[in-house]
Structure formats: structure tokens, C-alpha cells
């Protein structure tokens, strides 16, 4: 077995280097048939068993492998985040309920004008809008690219918020007193652009959900949002019965 070299100069912990290399190999499909056990990794990387266990613990917490006592680790099926339709729900909460940690990389948070979006909010074209763009993660993997616009006159206090690990709607309520009470979403399947596929790390064959939403408060449009969600990690669900039929639009659908 060929020894795999890690940088032992002390710049980065060995377990972290090992974890990152195993993620790289997972993505390359090296472990589709079988994932190596602890002793094999010790020999392969010439590290201690403690180092291996630290790396595997991170892979487990990110939902990439399943490791049960007395059994060899195996590659986990890709975690799927499910959202109900026809009811208020939170992507923030659903990700963490799936057992994965949730965080965001804020790509933009500023005030700008956008005539097209302003029209969708029934505003004049020159009205300043608060714009928030986030790349949202479930574990170490991107899940969604989220862009939202709100009237700056209402949402300007959000400029001081840290959106790396918090809900937009919680911050909006806490800082402005504004709560969304209704909304409309249009959802369709799309093929991500090359740039979007790179950003979201989508597999070559994966499509995505394109979600446009207008959120309202007391019958006033206050939010326009576009979310692009990886189709291989996200599913929508609905309930139906013989009495009520298929119910998708009985309540606002929101995704924090």
C-alpha cells in the first residue's frame, strides 16, 4: 500500500489534513465500493489511531460516513433535506433537524436599487433595497444559493446582522418588529449554469430547484427572494387525503 503523505511541519493538524484528503477521495468516488477501516488508514497515512478517529468523527458529524460500534465505516447516502409544502417552514431548522450543521457564507449585504425587483414589490424603480446574498451550507457541502431583496426603509437595521449562522426572519423580527404572514412561491426544476454548478458543487447530472418567492406582511409585499437549491440534496413533500385532496396552497410557503 502506498503511503499518503501529510504535511508534518505543524501548519495544520494531521487529523484535519486527513479529513480533507478523505473528503477529496470521497468526492472522486474512490470509496464507492468500500470505505477503509481505521487500521488501514493508520497504515496508509502513517498516523496514529487517535488521529484517524478524529478525522472520522468529523466525517460522521458532516454526514459523509456512517460508523457504528464494531463495524467498518461506510459511505453515507447523501443527506436529503425535506421541506413540507403548504405550510410555514424554515430551511435553517430543517437542515439542523436532519443532523447536519447549518451555516452561510455571506456574499453580499448592502443597499442598492433594482427597478425589476422594486416592481415586484410594488415600489418605484429608484427605491433603495436591502440586498442579501448567501451561499448556504448543510454540513461542509453547499445546499443553496439564496438572494433576497427587502425595502431598505424597513430592513436597514439588518445591515449590522451576522448572517453566517442565523435566520433572516428571526433577525428581521428582532431588529425591526416585522414578521411575514403570507407569501407565494413558484418552484421549477432547472439546469444550473456552469458557474452555479461550481459554486454549489453540484454533481454533473444533478438538476436544481429554482424558487421565486414574494413574501408579504399585513398585505404589503416586503420580500422578493430567489433561491437555487441542489436537487440532489433537497426534496419537497405534501400531504393528501380522500376528504381534502392534495393540499399545497392552503398556507404561506416560506423558506428562511
UniProtKB/TrEMBL annotation:
Signal peptide: none annotated. GO terms for biological process: negative regulation of DNA-templated transcription. Residues 8-78 form the HTH gntR-type domain. InterPro entries: Bact_HTH_transcr_reg, Chorismate_lyase_/UTRA_dom_sf, Tscrpt_reg_HTH_GntR, UTRA, WH-like_DNA-bd_sf, WH_DNA-bd_sf. One of its GO terms (molecular function) is DNA binding. Keywords: DNA-binding, Transcription, Transcription regulation. This is GntR family transcriptional regulator. The lineage of its organism: Bacteria, Bacillati, Actinomycetota, Actinomycetes, Propionibacteriales.
